Automatic annotation (TrEMBL):
<dbReference type="Pfam" id="PF00072">
    <property type="entry name" value="Response_reg"/>
</dbReference>
<dbReference type="Pfam" id="PF00196">
    <property type="entry name" value="GerE"/>
</dbReference>
<keyword id="KW-0805">Transcription regulation</keyword>
<keyword id="KW-0804">Transcription</keyword>
<keyword id="KW-0597">Phosphoprotein</keyword>
<protein>
    <submittedName>
        <fullName>DNA-binding response regulator</fullName>
    </submittedName>
</protein>
<dbReference type="InterPro" id="IPR016032">
    <property type="entry name" value="Sig_transdc_resp-reg_C-effctor"/>
</dbReference>
<dbReference type="InterPro" id="IPR039420">
    <property type="entry name" value="WalR-like"/>
</dbReference>
<dbReference type="GO" id="GO:0003677">
    <property type="term" value="F:DNA binding"/>
</dbReference>
<feature type="domain" description="Response regulatory">
    <location>
        <begin position="3"/>
        <end position="119"/>
    </location>
</feature>
<dbReference type="InterPro" id="IPR001789">
    <property type="entry name" value="Sig_transdc_resp-reg_receiver"/>
</dbReference>
<dbReference type="InterPro" id="IPR011006">
    <property type="entry name" value="CheY-like_superfamily"/>
</dbReference>
<feature type="domain" description="HTH luxR-type">
    <location>
        <begin position="152"/>
        <end position="217"/>
    </location>
</feature>
<keyword id="KW-0238">DNA-binding</keyword>
<dbReference type="InterPro" id="IPR000792">
    <property type="entry name" value="Tscrpt_reg_LuxR_C"/>
</dbReference>
<feature type="modified residue" description="4-aspartylphosphate">
    <location>
        <position position="54"/>
    </location>
</feature>
<dbReference type="GO" id="GO:0006355">
    <property type="term" value="P:regulation of DNA-templated transcription"/>
</dbReference>
Amino acid sequence: MIRTLIADDEPMVRAGVRAVLATDPGIEVVAEAGDGRDAVELTLRHRPDVAVLDIRMPGMDGIRAAGEIRRAAPGTGVVVLTTFGEDEYILRALGGGAAGFLIKSGEPEELIAGVRAVAEGAAYLSPRVAARVVAYLASTGAGDRAARRGTARERVGALTPRERDVLALIGTGLSNGRIARRLHVVEGTVKAHVSSILSRLGVENRAAAAVVAHEAGLVAAPPERP
């Protein structure tokens, strides 16, 4: 059973998330919070496997709460809920320890898939979140979309062919176990590949690696929906 905490300052959103998660008999909601500070306190009390956090909450937002949870309860994975137009927040959350990123208006199946992936130790970027992050990166900072794509492809080019295969599957949100089954290897081999990939790409976690996978074109993202 995957024990889950939900944190959002809007009761109707919490109710909606709870209703979606309730459709999966393998997921149990053990606590709910209306702000980030309460989310941290309830995480320490209940030790859920996954905390689902709204990115914007009063007092302590989801980004700060994610960082606090990862420091105080490293066994709890964090999924962040976002809306369109919050791309910069997602980039901050990438550095704060969140492993899953979902759009509130996305398909219910994505929420369940994200919670399950993070509970298994994987990263999960909703394809639409990944597409927006890549577009945001292309429109800010150094260079244009083509330059950033070229940089990502150059970084990916330093990987071995098998590492590129693993990175592409990381980009789809698969756990090490599922990647191992897909590639017909043992899970320990996948773990070794993941460690090498993170080191070679110079990123700290699987979510950041997933962004590189999307930006390099290893993962096909669906068109955005308004």
